[in-house]
C-alpha cells in the first residue's frame, strides 16, 4: 500500500485508528475456546465489527508465536482475511525484527512476501545495514522504534550521545538510509511531551503511536504536536478495544470502544 492510499483512507473514514490484535486465550470469551481456531474466530469477529472505524490492524506477533505453529497459522488466516475482505486497510506486523543484512532480508520476505503485511516494526539497534533490507521492498513500510511507550525507554532512548538523545540520532540517521521514504516510526503515546521535538526532525513521517488506553496515553495530548500536514499518525489501542467484554457481545463492545476513539478523531480532523 502506498502512503497516499493510507492518507486517502484516513480522510474517507475520518479515522487514524489502528486496532491491535493481541489475542490472549485467557482473555477471550470462553465460548470461543470450543472452536477449532479460537484466535482466528475472535479476530474475525473483531474485524467484522470494527473495519469501518479504523484504518489499520496491528497483530503483535508475540501473541501468535506463543501458541506455536497453531498460533502462526491463526496469524496467517487473520492477515489473509483482512487482505481479502478489506484490502484498503493498512496492516502492521508488530514483530520488532532487525539483524545482519541477509537475515533482515529473510525477515522482510517473511512479513512482506509470504504473509503480505504492508509493514513491519523494526528495532534500529543494529544500524543501517540491518534496516535497509526492509526498505528495499516497494510500497512496503518499515516502522522503526524511535521512542517507545514503556518506562524502559528512558534507559537508553533518551540518553545523550554527543549531546543529543539517542532517539534523535535514530530519527536523523535513518533519514539518510536508502529508500528512507518507506520509513515510519514508533513513538509512544505516553511520551506526548516529546512530539514537538520529534516533528522538528520528521515533520511528515507517519508515526505509529501505541500506548493509548491500557497504558494511560491520551489522544488529545498526542495530537497537539503529533499531527502533520498529511495527518501522519496511526494511534494504536489493543487491550482497550478488543477486551471491552468477555461475553458474547465482545465484538459489539469492541466496536463501541473503537467508535469512541474514532469520534474523537473525527472532531480533531474537522
Ligand atoms: O513502544 C511500544 C511499541 C509497541 N507496543 C505494542 O503496542 C501494543 C499496545 O497494546 P495496548 O494493549 O494498547 O497497551 C502491544 O502490542 C505492544 O507490544 C507498545 O505498547 N509500545
From TrEMBL:
One of the record's GO molecular function terms: orotidine-5'-phosphate decarboxylase activity
Pathway: Pyrimidine metabolism; UMP biosynthesis via de novo pathway; UMP from orotate: step 2/2
Entry keyword set: Decarboxylase, Lyase, Pyrimidine biosynthesis
Pfam families, per the entry: OMPdecase
Orotidine 5'-phosphate decarboxylase domain boundaries: 16-254
Claim: ATP-binding is one of the keywords in the record: no
Record's keyword annotation contains Transferase: no
GO biological process: 'de novo' pyrimidine nucleobase biosynthetic process; 'de novo' UMP biosynthetic process
Protein name: Orotidine-5'-phosphate decarboxylase
Catalytic activity: orotidine 5'-phosphate + H(+) = UMP + CO2
Enzyme Commission number(s): 4.1.1.23
Protein family: Belongs to the OMP decarboxylase family. Type 2 subfamily.
SUPFAM superfamilies associated with the record: Ribulose-phoshate binding barrel (SSF51366)
Amino acid at each position: 500500500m502506498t502512503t497516499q492510499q493510507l492518507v486517502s483512507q484516513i480522510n474517507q473514514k475520518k479515522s487514524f485508528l489502528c486496532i491491535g490484535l493481541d489475542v490472549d486465550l485467557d482473555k477471550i470469551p470462553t465460548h470461543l475456546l470450543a472452536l477449532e481456531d479460537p484466535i482466528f474466530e475472535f479476530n474475525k469477529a473483531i474485524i467484522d465489527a470494527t473495519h469501518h472505524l479504523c484504518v489499520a490492524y496491528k497483530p503483535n506477533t508475540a501473541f501468535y508465536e506463543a501458541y506455536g505453529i497453531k498460533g502462526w497459522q491463526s496469524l496467517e488466516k487473520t492477515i489473509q482475511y483482512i487482505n481479502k475482505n478489506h484490502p484498503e486497510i493498512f496492516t502492521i506486523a508488530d514483530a520488532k525484527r532487525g539483524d545482519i543484512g541477509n537475515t533482515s532480508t529473510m525477515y522482510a520476505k517473511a512479513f512482506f512476501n509470504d504473509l503480505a503485511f504492508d509493514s513491519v516494526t523494526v528495532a534500529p539497534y543494529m544500524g543501517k545495514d540491518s534496516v535497509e533490507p526492509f526498505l528495499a521492498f516497494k510500497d512496503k513500510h518499515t516502522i522503526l522504534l524511535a521512542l517507545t511507550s514503556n518506562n524502559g525507554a528512558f534507559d537508553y532512548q533518551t540518553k545523550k550521545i554527543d549531546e543529543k538523545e539517542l532517539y534523535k540520532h535514530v530519527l536523523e540517521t535513518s533519514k539518510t538510509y536508502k529508500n528512507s521514504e518507506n520509513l515510519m516510526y514508533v513513538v509512544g503515546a505516553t511520551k506526548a511531551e516529546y512530539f514537538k521535538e520529534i516533528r522538528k526532525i520528521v515533520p511528515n513521517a507517519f508515526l505509529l503511536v501505541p500506548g493509548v488506553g491500557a497504558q494511560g496515553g491520551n489522544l488529545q495530548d498526542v495530537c497537539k504536536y503529533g499531527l502533520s500536514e498529511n495527518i501522519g499518525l496511526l494511534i494504536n489501542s489493543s487491550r482497550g478495544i478488543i477486551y471491552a467484554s468477555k461475553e458474547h457481545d465482545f465484538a459489539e463492545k469492541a466496536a463501541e470502544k473503537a467508535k469512541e476513539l474514532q469520534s474523537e478523531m473525527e472532531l480533531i480532523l474537522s
